[in-house]
From TrEMBL:
<dbReference type="Pfam" id="PF04564">
    <property type="entry name" value="U-box"/>
</dbReference>
<dbReference type="InterPro" id="IPR043136">
    <property type="entry name" value="B30.2/SPRY_sf"/>
</dbReference>
<dbReference type="GO" id="GO:0004842">
    <property type="term" value="F:ubiquitin-protein transferase activity"/>
</dbReference>
<protein>
    <recommendedName>
        <fullName>U-box domain-containing protein</fullName>
    </recommendedName>
</protein>
<dbReference type="Pfam" id="PF07177">
    <property type="entry name" value="Neuralized"/>
</dbReference>
<dbReference type="InterPro" id="IPR013083">
    <property type="entry name" value="Znf_RING/FYVE/PHD"/>
</dbReference>
<dbReference type="InterPro" id="IPR006573">
    <property type="entry name" value="NHR_dom"/>
</dbReference>
<feature type="domain" description="U-box">
    <location>
        <begin position="12"/>
        <end position="91"/>
    </location>
</feature>
<dbReference type="InterPro" id="IPR052085">
    <property type="entry name" value="WD-SAM-U-box"/>
</dbReference>
<dbReference type="InterPro" id="IPR003613">
    <property type="entry name" value="Ubox_domain"/>
</dbReference>
<dbReference type="GO" id="GO:0016567">
    <property type="term" value="P:protein ubiquitination"/>
</dbReference>
């Protein structure tokens, strides 16, 4: 009998079987000339995006320029994955015949952004990007670390506040995205839908961090770590920048209401931007988030510190254009 999906070794899957770009189990793994393995369709889409942008082919893992875009089938890895799927029929059944289907243990449904959540708030048409790597992403909130007052629902795509912090500690209501929103300087976004609010003060903290949540859980002082390594806008409208303190950005989240779409994006110029229903509310040029070869993957986080009590990740938000 196959190992139950919930008991799988997450680190083994993430390190060995998931494509670094799509974060999905690879069915046709290939190696680039620098030795890293990817799902063929994902790395081909990565190269196509670079060609369209007039950029040289570079490694999604290191940002270094590749001398050639040659792809070599990783036969050994494919055998390992095929053997794993043979021994875990519940995962194989979830994958079906689609190479881009997500692994069962992640409890994620593949994004239907292209045909579903579309231009109701004035976003550009997504169909023209349907072949891009962005459409392959699926998102969930990380299992750990998360605030003591947060419960995860809907296959870890919805975060709900289940209490009030006696100590007024915003870290008790924080939750991190499990997958990075930015790789090597590309303009990526993560978007949340405000599901429920109550009468009260304040709204949310929203930001990005370069540290994997699995690493953050080991931090002895998460608050200090975020202050020194992360960029975020707090519920009072202050933009926090590592080593530079905070500056007032002119937007507060206390007036958010159910149904609002809140996105945070990091363009290549290092700016931290926040959008509400497609309208830019924050343009933090002083953030100076490293981009290009100096960049690292960025993970989104949100804290339900005030009157916002429930948020959900929006599928396919990485495919949107924000200007």
């Amino acid at each position: 009998m196959g190992t139950p999906a919930d008991d799988l070794d997450d680190d083994l899957l993430l390190d060995g079987m998931l494509c670094p770009i799509s974060q999905l189990i690879m069915r046709d793994p290939v190696c680039t000339v620098d030795g890293h393995s990817y799902e063929r369709s994902a790395i081909e889409a990565w190269f196509r995006n670079q060609e369209v942008a007039g950029l040289r082919h570079s490694s999604p893992m290191t940002g270094e320029t590749l001398p050639t875009s040659t792809l070599i089938p990783n036969i050994t890895l494919k055998r390992v994955i095929d053997d794993f799927l043979d021994k875990t029929p519940e995962v194989a059944q979830q994958l079906g015949t689609a190479a881009s289907a997500p692994p069962l243990y992640m409890h994620n449904a593949l994004s239907s952004a292209v045909s579903g959540h579309r231009t109701s708030v004035g976003y550009p048409d997504l169909a023209r990007q349907s072949n891009s790597l962005y459409d392959m992403r699926s998102l969930s909130f990380a299992e750990e670390p998360r605030g003591k007052l947060i419960e995860l629902e809907d296959h870890k795509k919805t975060a709900r506040k289940c209490g009030i912090s006696v100590l007024n500690d915003w870290l008790e209501s924080i939750v991190f995205c499990s997958f990075p929103l930015s790789i090597n300087g590309y303009n990526r976004s993560v978007e949340y839908e405000i599901k429920k609010t109550v009468t009260g003060w304040g709204g949310i903290h929203i930001g990005v961090t370069p540290d994997d949540p699995k690493i953050l859980v080991k931090s002895s002082n998460l608050n200090t770590h975020l202050e020194e390594h992360s960029w975020w806008v707090d519920s009072d409208g202050w933009l926090h920048v590592p080593d530079e303190g905070a500056s007032l950005c002119g937007w507060t989240s206390g007036d958010l209401k159910a149904g609002d779409l809140v996105a945070i994006t990091c363009p290549e110029d290092g700016t931290l931007c926040v959008y509400v229903n497609g309208r830019r509310k924050v343009q933090g040029r002083e953030a100076r988030i490293p981009s290009g070869k100096r960049s690292k993957p960025l993970y989104g986080f949100i804290a339900l510190t005030g009157n916002v009590t429930e948020v959900a990740l929006v599928e396919g938000s990485l495919a949107r254009d924000y200007h």
